Predict the 3D structure of the following.
Amino acid sequence: MLFYFLVEGFENPGGSTSEWLMQFGWSFGVSILVSAVFSYLLVILLQNIKTQLKLFLLIAVLILLYAVGKMLHLSSLLVILIFGLILNNPNLFFPGKLQRWLKADIVSGLLNDFKLITRETAFIVRTFFFVVFGYSIDLGSLANPLVIFFALLALVGIYRIRAVAIQWTVPQPQAVLTYLAPRGLITILLFYAIPESMGIAQFDNGILLYIILTSSVLMAWGMVRNQDKDDHRTLGDMLRDTASVDPELGPLESTETAAPNEGNA
């Protein structure tokens, strides 16, 4: 959102910085309000549709909302984001008396179907864009020391910022969180969205390729390494984690004493 806002501002200069920031804040606030309203309406509408043809209707409506948001200069991606948050966390967004508007079993089935079609569609989109990105790569430039240097410099900055952000926001961070900073489709999309007048002629696409491949490998390595640690956790550790997250399971002592009985049964 900030990227597109900055690009639009540089392409259409005029006005003070305060006016520029007020415009961004207004667009952001209105986008959240409109996104929340339409997302609630979509969830209520979809769970009451009797026909089986829901998913493609949902996709068509989301595309329509995205297009309308673009025409009104709103942050259309917020519509998709907030709708996904509501769909995946219905009990959180339908508290108290709003529960009577929620059909949890229908929403759960809709969420599972939507996850399936999202995974399939995302695979096709990622494949297409990476093929297009591959056309723009000069393999000879990958051996250029400057390309490697700037890619390493960018990676150090990415993971350093990631580590600082985790330390500030997560009370007891796990080491694996630092590795979860992959660069991929969004990086390519934003790169191709840079106007030609703002591009750097000396910039080599091989830098992006190194960043994408290295960050993906580091993420995979960090997850595998963390998975090995999870495999060695005891049953008591897992029950303790579960009880601390889900208060409905009751006190920790009751879950730990119930486990042996289940095993004997």
